[in-house]
Every structure is written in C-alpha cells, then in structure tokens.
Amino acid sequence: MGSIQVPESNVDVLIIGAGPSGLMAAAWMAHCGVNARIVDKRGTKVFCGQADGLQCRSLEIFDSLGFADRAWKEANHMIEGVCLLIRLQNPGNDGVIRRSDRIPDTIVGLSRFQQIVLHQGRVERFFLENIKKYSKDQIKVERGVLPESLEIDLSKVDDDSAYPVTVKLRQLSEEEATPPQVRTASKAPDGLFRSNLVQEDDEEDLIKKSQARSGESEIVHAKYVIGCDGARSWTRRALGFELDGEATDFIWGVMDIIPITDFPDIRMRCAIHSAENGSLMVIPRENKLVRLYIQLKEVTPDASGRADRSKITPEIIFGAAQKILSPYKIDYEYCDWWTAYQIGQRVGTTFDAHSRVFLAGDAVHTHSPKAGQGMNVSMQDTYNLGWKIALAAKGIAKREILSTYQSERRRVAQDLIEFDHRFSRLFSGRPAKDVMDAEGVSMEVFKDAFLKGNMFASGLSVDYGASMLVVKAGDSLKQGDGSKVLRAVTAISEEDFKKKQSLASGLPVGMRFNSFKVLNQACARPWHFQERLKADGRFRVVLFAGNILDAAQKARVDKFCAALDAPESFLHRATPPGAPIDSVIEILTIHSSKRFDTELLRDFPAILHPFDPHTGWNYDKVFVDDESYHEGHGEAYKNYGVDKQRGCVVVARPDQYVAWIGELEDFDDLQKYFEGCLVLGNRSSNANGTTLPIRQ
Amino acid sequence: MGSIQVPESNVDVLIIGAGPSGLMAAAWMAHCGVNARIVDKRGTKVFCGQADGLQCRSLEIFDSLGFADRAWKEANHMIEGVCLLIRLQNPGNDGVIRRSDRIPDTIVGLSRFQQIVLHQGRVERFFLENIKKYSKDQIKVERGVLPESLEIDLSKVDDDSAYPVTVKLRQLSEEEATPPQVRTASKAPDGLFRSNLVQEDDEEDLIKKSQARSGESEIVHAKYVIGCDGARSWTRRALGFELDGEATDFIWGVMDIIPITDFPDIRMRCAIHSAENGSLMVIPRENKLVRLYIQLKEVTPDASGRADRSKITPEIIFGAAQKILSPYKIDYEYCDWWTAYQIGQRVGTTFDAHSRVFLAGDAVHTHSPKAGQGMNVSMQDTYNLGWKIALAAKGIAKREILSTYQSERRRVAQDLIEFDHRFSRLFSGRPAKDVMDAEGVSMEVFKDAFLKGNMFASGLSVDYGASMLVVKAGDSLKQGDGSKVLRAVTAISEEDFKKKQSLASGLPVGMRFNSFKVLNQACARPWHFQERLKADGRFRVVLFAGNILDAAQKARVDKFCAALDAPESFLHRATPPGAPIDSVIEILTIHSSKRFDTELLRDFPAILHPFDPHTGWNYDKVFVDDESYHEGHGEAYKNYGVDKQRGCVVVARPDQYVAWIGELEDFDDLQKYFEGCLVLGNRSSNANGTTLPIRQ
C-alpha cells in the first residue's frame, strides 16, 4: 500500500459536513465565486424529521440567497401560539377548553416574514439547488467522504497566498456511509442514531474499516477549513477543543405524526403544561403533520448518564402524550419520524484555530431542539462566517476580519444556551398548584417565558458588538473573547456614536438592516429594500439622499458623490481594474422627494446610476420613499428614523448587518471604515471612465 | 413499406401543438389525472422572443396550477404606463419631457397580481415542469411529431366509451423538426419564420420528405383532440374550417434589445405617438431588456399582401425607432430577438367539430401582438376547455358541457379582435396636428384607448353568458353560437336572477371568483381565498355561513348541511364509491363571526370539515372573515357583497368562474345545477361514513 501515490490538490475552502450549517457556508462560496469543496461522511441526505422551525431571520437570509419563496410556499405558517394548562380531569369538564392565552406566534411588525415550519430535508434540497445554480455546477456535496487527519502548518498561517491546512480525506464504501436509521421494530424511521442518548462516534471504526481497502484516500491543502460536522464534530476533536456545559435529567421524546384527535388547538403552536403528567409542545407542520415534543417523566438516565433504551419506543412516548392531553383523545395511524433526547446545553470555548480552521453550528453549541433554534443559529453562524472567508480568500478583505467570527457568534451561542437553559427547566418543571405553591411554575411565569421565547426565536435580537466591521461604541475586548481587531481608526466614543446612531434611529448599528418598501425611481416598482441587499459578497453604501429637489441638499449630495467618484475614493480603489464600479461595493440611493417631481437622469449624479458602455445607464440603484400604486406607502424614512430633508449614509455588510452610520459630510470616516477592513488598490484607472454619460 | 405494421394505440386526449395554449390543456390533464399525449412538430422549444405580456388573470391561473410565484419572481413588473406625444424637434426643446399622462399600468384593486412581462420560453418551462410533476412523468411533450391525417368516425361521436378520432402521426428527423430561425445576416435570432409576413405552411413538405423514410408513423385513436397549432393550424385546415377577418396595410417591427439611451421613460410602458415619424411602444422586460414595437411607415405590402422582405432588417426597424424617439438618442449593442408582422384580425367561425376536435389559441383567432393579449387569451381558451374535456373523459361531467367552449370563448375572441382592430388603427394613425384636425388622432382619444386597453388587458372583464354551467338570466342561443345546451332546469328569469345576484353582489355570475383574504379557522393563517380554488378539476360550493353564533342562523346552516350530507345529495352522488367526500365537489366555508369566539369542532357541522379515519378531521376547509395578525383585514363579506348575518351559497367552477348563487334554503336548485352538468351516481354508500366523528 505504501507504494500507491495518494493524490494531492489545493482548494481555497474545505467544508466538512453538509448539514444546513455547511451548506450555508458552501452557498456563500458559490455566490462569491470561491473555489470550495464540501464533504460529508453520510452517503445520503436527510429525508425526514430533524430540526424544522425557520425563524424570520433565516427566511430573510434565504431571501438574500434567492429561495425564501420556496420555503414560504411549502411550509406551514406559524401564526398563533397558545399556552394551555390542562388540570386534572374533574367530572363535568370534559371537552372544555382552557386557553390561558392566544398570541401571534411571530411578534407583529418585526419582519416581512413570519416563523414557518418545514423539515430539514427540504431546506437542504433548496440549498443544494441554489449552490448548483450559483457555482455553475462547480460545488457539489461529496458524500461518503470522511476526514482522517488535519494539520495546520503554523509557519504559513499568516501568509495570504499559502494553503496552511492539510486534510486527509477518505472515500467510504456505500455501506459504510449509510447511517443506521430504523433500528427498532417500529415502522417509522427513528432519529436515535443522532440523538445525544446514544453514543455514536463511528469515525474511528469507519476509518479503520476503510483503511483495509486501498486507493481510497486523498490529501487536500486548504486555505481555510470550516468544520460543520455536528455535536460530535470530528473537526473539533481533531483540534482538541472542548464544549463547556452540562446535561440535565430531563428526557424528551419527539414524534412527527398525522394526529387523529379532538384536541381543538392541534393546528396551533401549543405549550401544554399538565397538572400531573408533564409537558408537551405541539408544532403544526406541513402536509397535515404535527410535531409533538413530549416530556418523558418515566424515563431517566442512569449513573453513567445513559437512559434505558428499552423505554424509548414510539409506544411509550405516545402514551406519555396521551396522558398529558387527557381528557382530549389523540391517536395516529401515520408516524413520519421519531426520536428522543436528553436536555443539555454546551458551548465551545474556542471557535477557530489561527483563523484558518473554524467550527460552526452544533460543533460549537448544543441545546434542546424545542425552542426551534438549532438549525437557525447554526445556519446563521456560517452566514456570518462565509462572506468573511470568501472575501479574505479572494483578497478583497483583510484576513483580520476573520477574528470577528468568534467575537460575534460566541456571544449569540451563549445567549442561546442561557435562554434554552431557563426555558427548558421551566418547561420541564412541575406547574404550581396555586399561587401559594412557590416551588411549582406559575402560569404567569410560564407565559412570560413563552412570550420572551418568541422574540428570541425570531433571530432578530442579534446585536453584534464593536469591531473593525461594526463601528459603534464599546471595547471589542469586552464584546467577546478574540476581538483583538478593533482599530483606532474606527473607534468611536459613546457620545459621538449616539449622535451618529440618531441619524438613523431605526437602523441600530450591529443589528440586521430592517426592511421597508421603497419604489424604484425609474419604473415605480415597489421593493422591500432588503430584497436589494442580496448575498453576493458586496458591501452596500446606502445613501439616504433626502430632499434632492432642495438646492442646498442637492449640493450636499453632489459633494458626497464627487468624493465617491474621485480616483482615490474607497469605491474606486476597491474595484479591480476593468471591473464594473459596483463589483465590490454597491451604492444604493433612497431619496425622499416625490417620484413624479424627480428624474433619474436629470437629478442624480451619474455615480448613483453608473453608465455601462454595453448596457447603458443603470436603472436599479435609485429608490424613492413614496406611495406605490398597489402596495401602499413604505414610509421608509420614518421607519428608518432618517431625516427627510438631510438624509444620512449607512453601510450594510454583505450579511445585511448595519456597520456604519454618518452624515453626508463624513466621507473621510467612511473612507477609513473601508481602509480598515478591505484591501484597497491604488488610484483606480476606472475613475470617471465607467460613469461617462452619453449625452454631454 | 406496405408490409410494415403501423403501431396503433388509444389515448383519451391528444393535444396538437405545445405552445402556451397546448401546454395549458396538458396541464389540466396532468392535474386531473387524465391519460393524454401532446405533440409538436418543432424539435426544440422556444428560447427567446415571442409573446411576453402576462395579464393579471393569467397569473391567477398560474397560481391555480402552482407556478405564479415563479413567473412573478423572474418577470419585470409593469407598474406605470406613460402616454407621450413627441412633436417635431423645435430649437430649444431638446431633452424636455412631455408626458401627457402617467397611470398605473394595472388598474388598482382589480387583482392580487399586476401585469408582468416575461418571455414565452420561461412560461413554457414552468408549464413543462408543472406537467411533469402533476402527471408523475406520464405526460411529456413529444417533439418533432407531425400529424398527417385526421378522421372523425361520426357513428361514434355520441358514444362515451368510444375513441372516435383517428390521427396519424409522423416522427420527423431532427433536421426536419428544426425551425429555420436566424435567416438573415443579423447576429440576433429572428422570428420571421413565424411572422404572418412570410408564408410558411411547411407541413406538406415535411410530410412528403418524411414519408420517404420508413417506420416513422403511428396511428392514435383519441376520445378528444385539441388543436393548438397556431395561426396556420394544421388541425383547422384538416377540419376545413376558416378564419373570418382582414389584414391591414400597417406593418410593425419588434425588437428585444438592451437599450443605451437618454430617453427617460425607457423602464415604463410607453405609447409614443410622434408627430411625423409614426408610433412606438416601449415594453420594459426582465434582465435589462426592452421590447420595442415600431411602426414601419416605409414598408407596405404589395398587391399580393406581401411586404418587401429586403426592407425587413434590424437596421431598418431600428432606424425607424430612432426617428420616432428623436430628439432622444437610442442605441444598442445587444439584440435578443426581432421580427415584423402585418396587423390583421381574424376569428374562427367554428371552434369545434362534433365536440370531439377542438381548436384553441391562434388556431381560431389572430391579432396584433402589441396589446399583449395573444398568449393570454390563447392560454385562457384551454383553461376554459381543459377541465371540461377532463371531466367528460373521466365520466364525471356530461359531454354536453363541451359545447359551452365555443359559446364562451368565441365571444371573448370576437371582443378581442374588435378591441385590437380599433386600438391598432388608432395607434398606427396620424396624430392630430391641433383640435381642428378631425382626421388625425387626438391625444385625448389616444389616451382614452390606452386606459380602456388596460382594463381589457387585465383579462378580468371576461363575463360568460348563461348556459348549463352558468346560471344567470339570458338565452344561451343569444349568448353565442353553439349554446344549445341551456337546460330548463337551470333557466332563471331576469327578476329572479337579480335577487340571487344581490346575495353576493361582488361575485358576478359568469365572471371569475374575485379574491380577498380570509383566515383559516383552525390555525389563523391568512389566505387569499382564490388560493384555495386550485385547478384540480373540482367544483367548489362556497358556503358563506354568516353569523354562525346566532342560533337562528346556525339552524339554517345545520339544515343546509343536513341536506348536503343526505345520501341522495349531489355531493354524495357525485363522489365515487370509496373515494373521499371532497373528490369531485369541495365544500368551503367562510363565516363572519369572530374567530376567537368560534371553535371548528364545536360550531361547524362535520360535513364542513370531514373526518377521515386515517388522517382525522380536516382543518383546511373552514375560513373566517376576521382581522389577521400580520396582513390586515380582508373584509371578504363586504367585498363579496354578502350579508354578514345570513350569508349565501356560491358555486365556483373548476376554472374559478362563478356559476350559481343562492340562499341557504335553495338547496334544491343547487342539486338541480349539479344534476344538470354532472353524471351523478346512486345514493352514495359513503353517506355519513366519512363524517363520523371520533367523539360521540
């Protein structure tokens, strides 16, 4: 065997694991045109079960990639949430419904999307098709491929052109790559093989078996590696990193069934706290399915932390559900999938090694699935990381921005497990018998947690701290470990920041760019502004041009645009020679004059609608905050909290987070922002060239 | 060759021609599970150019099939229309814009969709994927297949089980099936081979050539044949049918380009009437493309009706456009497609032969493409016809309903060509010099036509006359030729009809079922009600249940439901033994009580949310007219003009047209409606069986 040549190759980015987190990373590479590979040890993709709640923020992200509409169309929409307390069955109360509260499941006005439910297999399908389309078939998931060793050449980690990470990959046989689903006598496939109740680090076994065969391995040299390989991450173990946290005694079962029941709220999200029999959560799904999360009071782990496997059957789980729901009756003929898990919350201490190997998703945080958070937070990890790696790999951004991954995402993971910790214990606890029962959980406390959970579950409360990428007050070292990158150049005092933030009070720096409707100046089409912030790796400078018909304001806009269009501006210097002027940074304008009174070509400087000698003027970059014919008035200035006369300038990162706010006169600060995070070239030879009008 | 056995086979429906009209017919067969074939003489599908405006109604129809979202996402949305008069270039007026009017391109409030523009190739792609999905790969377009002969066995045309139409089909070679696109020296593909300026009945040639080869033909026996084979329809000629009408001297050119221009309204639909140089229409499209319709004043047909081909080049067409647009400048580097046509309007005298062979689309009506009507009306022809043939072929509906195709669609075609006739002449005419110039077209007249065109172009003004399928006042014989089928059983006096119509004044009988938002009672999800009227071949009885919490009203609802659920009701008798109760006719309920005060299982009779022993209660059939959390109040009762206390009953046909309106007490009339058009079985053995609740 020693004589066989093992093939070697280079790749910019190697992604290990093709779940939602790995696929999100691959999607960025596809959208940014980065040379990447993605491997997964499993031979087949997930077809049913597993995580399935999609937050508003995840849908906004899907929209930035181009497939939110597909998820929105197929999913069950979560509209109403209900808290119920089912007390002991007293004579005469049969069939009487006691809803303690009915609330909108997504807080009204938070996002243009609402929370939906769709199983992970469909989400992965959307990703696969999207990656195929945008990478022009270049990036495909390589299945049945297992990493065997990982080495980082420390002498090369600071060299931009090097491939310092070496990974040995092994191709498994079809049999080896097939997960041992359907282990029990039950007809429905179970997910126990991925449950934390069953130990299943099979990599070593698989590698040993595979090594007996020859010629099935290869060596890959990568600039960057992203480990998205789940709670028992091989990549994490290869790096020797740990998860901090603990497990509890609470064990829950999960079943996806088509219910046959007289329980009236089966098509709403219900949190049911029974007096004696434990708790249950109802999550209505697509295709008549309902997911039940069922507290298994009669199953507890032994001293070793393992539960009695014989007690984990669909029959026992469903029996517990029937008890909790009594006096209502529930039954099923069809079960789509089931599993069980032990509640535990853990978070990684370190999210990356030398800014060359990164961990994301379950590989750095695990928690209970009930809050519907797992898939979302995992995808959002790599939505944060992917563009940073892509821009670094392409030489557009400085490699230093990569350290913001840990500072931004570890705090989110910590918030998540803290929330989950409180929520899970509350939910698994005994309900209070009456107001004097201090040990039990009162209905009020329970309901409060349910409401707070809704805000958290939207994914929209994420607020990144100060860094070279986010110009706001605060010390990056206090924002989270690893943020050694805040530059003096972008540092800002608390007082100054308050002033800048007040220019666009509806766009908090560090949070995602909220969306309101604006009209295209040239054709009057209404757009949710976020629809114009596509995930293509570009930063956006959003010029709120204010009242462009006012001569003084027009002069301010002209001056800002003249600075933008100067050869030494960040815009020209960021643009590669010969490339269109909007290749790296796109300028988008929203003005507040009446659309009927303004003319794109007459009233707006050419740099705002750049001229291309092959395709003419650009009609897709200038928008107006005005009434639409068919879809009302977006009131964008009002909602963004921007002055209609004077406007302001806002930078959105490629992942739609607000990065910088300033006056039209703050061009120098804006220039410094981009000098801080991007690799800028010399005076661009493009300057003025791309904006030459045809009419002199 | 005589010794070779020609294969023979039976098929329920044979569709000739796979343009939008034929594909719509095939889509119905796929959605209704009918055994069908679709053939096209061309070897490849259309990739660019051709008709591209999509009316509101076409989008509603696409939504009923399941792909409106795809068209909506890719298309350019037509928001604003502009009428412009460009006068002679006087010194000093350079660059001054004179818009005579700016109006919404789609009348506000007419539909949940607005008019969009997307080229035919994408529309055909959506159809092909939809047909593949719903027919489970059973129906595929067979390309390069030409019909050679068609015979109808008159002795069998009244036999439901017979296959009276015999068609001989011939498989062409790849070369024969390739259309002679790109004939000129121009780089852009041209569409002249489909233009009415070029005679091109190549079937005979193709058949002759093909006959020289052996073993390439087959014989198909069909129950029904639909000829969707275009303006020079082979099917129409095989039947010996004629088109009535005339051509004019007006010749227009069409170009799809990416314009490089300083003309300010290039991204709006513009009707431009120049003082001296003729007219131009601007239709902005997707991907920066713009379609220009250009009047060619310098090209006229000769005595034989043919134009001088040497004058039909992109250069000459574009030169005319530049003249019309002056003093604005226009140029292009990229041309996607171009063609030219002679304005003419013709309509078929007869739309079917013995209710066995039908003609649809351009095969029975031709007109100028400028009004953006062609593809829409053609698709709507087969949207009207397809479900009728499908239900007749399946034995669900009586074959007599097929004669309503001609009575309903010929009038639409006549209206269309009449409109087109007036509009085209107006548009091609000379603009008036001043108010005294009686021979010229005044700006006011021109603008008025533009506005009227918008209403017509929505596709929503279609109003079908009285027939066995549409219960309204009027004599079917006067509604249109061929309507020999109005039955005494559904005839209604003018006075009685007024009363019935007043029960739902917002749902005119004969017009499409308008859409407003309602909420699902069980889960609070808002739906545009039309989204629940999917194209699956089912009739819908919409029960406006009124105030269900009022005891007297509840008694009315209970009585209506008891009649529905009786074994002899049309509902049970229309349902095949063993099939779900909603297989042929679906009952949908909209009530007007507050959602929070009502309970699906408690307040609504079981027949309104039927119980299935395998999947439990149905949660998708009862809706409420109430405020939603995120999308406002649909005010459905108010908009439909239905009394909130008493409600009413409305029947929607499978194609969403309103067919019948009555009181809850008019059950007998409702029964008669379905006895008139459907094949009803005996007392159903399902009665009561499917609605047994689990709780006694």
From TrEMBL, chains A, B:
Domain of life of the source: Eukaryota
One Pfam family of this chain: FAD_binding_3
Domain FAD-binding, chain residue ranges per copy: 11-419
This protein's UniProt keywords: FAD, Flavoprotein, Oxidoreductase
Residue ranges annotated for the Phenol hydroxylase-like C-terminal dimerisation domain, each copy included: 462-679
InterPro entries: FAD-bd, FAD/NAD-bd_sf, Phe_hydrox_C_dim_dom, PHOX_C_sf, RIFMO-like, Thioredoxin-like_sf
Gene3D superfamilies, A to Z: 3.40.30.20, D-Amino Acid Oxidase, subunit A, domain 2, FAD/NAD(P)-binding domain
GO molecular function, one term: oxidoreductase activity, acting on paired donors, with incorporation or reduction of molecular oxygen, NAD(P)H as one donor, and incorporation of one atom of oxygen
Protein family: Belongs to the PheA/TfdB FAD monooxygenase family.
PANTHER family in UniProt: 2-MONOOXYGENASE, PUTATIVE (AFU_ORTHOLOGUE AFUA_1G13660)-RELATED, TRK SYSTEM POTASSIUM UPTAKE PROTEIN
The protein, known as: Putative phenol hydroxylase
Organism of derivation: Colletotrichum sublineola
